[in-house]
Amino acid sequence: MVQTNTVQRFQQYIDGEFEDGSEHFDSVNPATGEVWARMPAAGAADVDRAVRAAHRALNDPAWASLTASARGKLLYRLADLVAQHALRLAELETQDTGKIIRETRAQIGYVAEYYRYYAGVADKIQGAWLPVDKPDMEVTLRREPVGVVAGVVPWNSQLFLSAVKVGPALAAGCTIVLKASEDGPAPLLEFARLVHEAGFPAGVVNIVTGFGGDCGRTLTSHPLVSKIAFTGGPETARHVVRNSAENLAATSLELGGKSPVLVFDDADLDSAANAVVAGIFAATGQSCVAGSRLVVQRGIHDALVARLVAKAEAIRIGDPQDPATEMGPLATLRQHEHIERVLRASVEAGGRIVTGGQAPQAFARGFYFRPTIVDCPHPRVPSVEQELFGPVLSVVTFDTEADAVALANDTRYGLASGVFTRDLTRAHRLTRSLRAGIVWVNTYRAVSPIVPFGGYGLSGLGREGGLDAVLDYTRTKSVWIRT
Ligand code: NAD
């Protein structure tokens, strides 16, 4: 277990060295509201050193002359180390973000799997021979690493969200500076120790944490950065895109969501209810793909909502480190206040809270919030429109399939969507008409390293996962040789 009686200290990782950093900030345990760790706050000078180290490492023979399969072997080693240290990483993530240990342990299994996938991809990135209409010319296309990557992640699922950046970057031969979120950076700073142990040359991976306006801005506008892989909210993404006007780095954005789950009256109600509950309340609703809008057909509205209320009220809230706990606290007080504010406005706009809506009485300390369901008479209720990033399900009702599609697509986001129906012809139609990067039919939240992940509209730009996303970490060079 993580020691909590003394304040622990974490270090940043720059150019193969662990450093205390000159500035610090405190990290709060969301389950108690108490400071439990001191984190190094990287300022502009630290970030500049990290980017320069990554830039030097890019062309250093210790990294640049490794074969693709040698890079793959290092990634396999990293995957094994993640698996070996899964429990420690999971406990730290739970401690620093309040995400329950059941979920962090399960997710770190995926993190190791993703690194294994990218390890296998390293020697499958291929160039081409091009059949130009010139008999005396031999033209080939090489794929080279794009350069120094700036990876920026939010506080939820930092190990997972960084694996989809670090993995492809290293498979392609890039180097990376990863900025952990200022909220809950402990697992990523600990992960740096595994990178070191795996034997990556100094400077290939650098891991810092700090505040967005200072650390994040310096990193994403740095002239030596060639690619930015950002995950976070749309407002921050706008800053990042403005920052990238400085270096014109290729930028991928994985942003927020307001994902709809459509349930038709022919659906298997029990299986739909289980998926809707897991879709919204897992990770205390703090997940980009949270199915936060239930779009339900009128005839089954009451039956489904009754099932959901029963399940929501049965969720065991508790200490996130306890394996029996099913829902932990929100990660920050800021989140707690935001959710309360949006719920107040939603009730004023006609929303009816059918369960939850406040902190559980048993938890005076920490940032706990009850699983909440809001029945909404129209889609303009704020909880239907805004990403709350918390355990709040907003319900809207439809009569026809066309209404369902209109309600589902009535958002500027477009990350994920779910459809529950036994009519597969209808399901196929909906996979075409839903405006989202992912459509799950009779399931929700399934992921795999080989399947691209990303959104439409305000949910982002570009994709992570799958082979195409790895190619985003390369650039092509056309080589013409007169023969
Ligand atoms: P956030 O946008 O506030 O912060 C994300 C990261 O950006 C942090 O590391 C932060 O320090 C950094 N940052 C802040 N200002 C910056 C600046 N000016 N320049 C560069 N970096 C800056 O997000 P959050 O509150 O930590 O996380 C929640 C958001 O992330 C939600 O909107 C959620 O939906 C989204 N998210 C998306 C995905 C996805 O894959 N689509 C996954 C998880 C979370």
Give an account of the 3D structure:
The chain is an alpha/beta fold. It has 2 domains: 8-255 and 465-479, Aldehyde Dehydrogenase, Chain A, domain 1 (3-Layer(aba) Sandwich); 260-441, Aldehyde Dehydrogenase, Chain A, domain 2, CATH 3.40.309.10. It contains 16 helices and 21 strands. A 7-stranded mixed sheet has the order 15-16-17-14-13-18-19, with helices on both faces. A 6-stranded mixed sheet has the order 10-9-8-11-12-20, with helices on both faces. The protein is globular. The mean pLDDT is 96. The structure holds nicotinamide-adenine-dinucleotide (NAD). Nicotinamide-adenine-dinucleotide is lined by residues 152-156, 161, 179, 181-182, 212-213, 216-217, 220, 231-233, 236, 239-240, 243, 254-257, 288, 387, 389, 415, 460.
